[in-house]
Amino acid sequence: MGAYKYLEELYKRKQSDVLRFLLRVRAWQYRQLASVHRASRPTRPDKARRLGYKAKQGYVIYRVRVKRGGRKRPVPKGICYGKPATEGVNQLKFQRSLRSVAEERVGRKVTGNLRILNSYWVAQDSTYKFYEVILVDPNHKVIRNDPRINWIVNPVHKHRELRGLTAAGRKNRGVPGKGHRYNNTIGGSRRKAWKRRNTLNLRRYR
What is the rounded CA–CA span in Å between residue 148 and residue 171? Predict the structure, then answer.
């Protein structure tokens, strides 16, 4: 096995003494840093490489901290007006994962014309989850000349993370793959496809 394979196997055993100690120290270290900051290198090089990272010019890693827990409905004094179905303030769950929230925060914060490629988990404690986000500089000559990654230079890939086009975003939309029964997600999501196919659209002049 190569070194990356050893790293991969190590991370599959997160309750081993080595990783428990390592993750505890890392979580402490990341807590002291800003919520979004640039990392000089990926904490998990094996994982980063599997998600498309290369240790060359044009690739950037940002580390981001996201608060854990469900979503609380932002209503004054916990009063939800309207139907009883819309009641409830506390036990609500946000429709997207914390990983996609982390990507979004990096995308909003780091506006220097970088494109988000992917992200992965690095650590967590009782309050926070920490992710590392891989970004690509679409104006860098090395990126533009590399046929494996220069698809991201195309302007349709601006702010992929805000439109649910990254891996985390696609997973939350329910459109992660191809093949059997994924035709039910054509047009954005399962709900959108169902709604479009079950709505009677009668135009005024027909």
Answer: 23
Q: Are 119 and 60 in contact (CB under 8 A)?
A: no
Q: CB of 136 within 8 A of CB of 115?
A: yes
At 6 the pLDDT is 94
Angle at 191 between CA 189 and CA 196, to 5 degrees: 95
What is the C-alpha to C-alpha distance for residues 149 and 147, in angstroms, rounded to an integer? Answer: 6
pLDDT at 154: 96
Please state whether 123 falls in left (phi above 0), alpha (psi between -120 and 50) or beta: beta
Q: Is pLDDT at 176 greater than 80 in this prediction?
A: no
What are the b/e assignments for 129-161, b being 16+ CB within 10 Å?
Answer: bbbbbbbbbbebeebeebeebeebbeeebeebb
Using CA atoms, how far apart are residues 189 and 80, in angstroms rounded to an integer?
A: 28
Alpha-carbon span 136 to 60, nearest angstrom: 6
Give me the residues paired with residue 39 across strands: 61
DSSP tag of 69: S
Q: Are 143 and 136 contacting, i.e. CB atoms less than 8 angstroms apart? A: yes
Contact indicator for 53, 42 with CB cutoff of 8 Å: yes
pTM of the model: 0.90
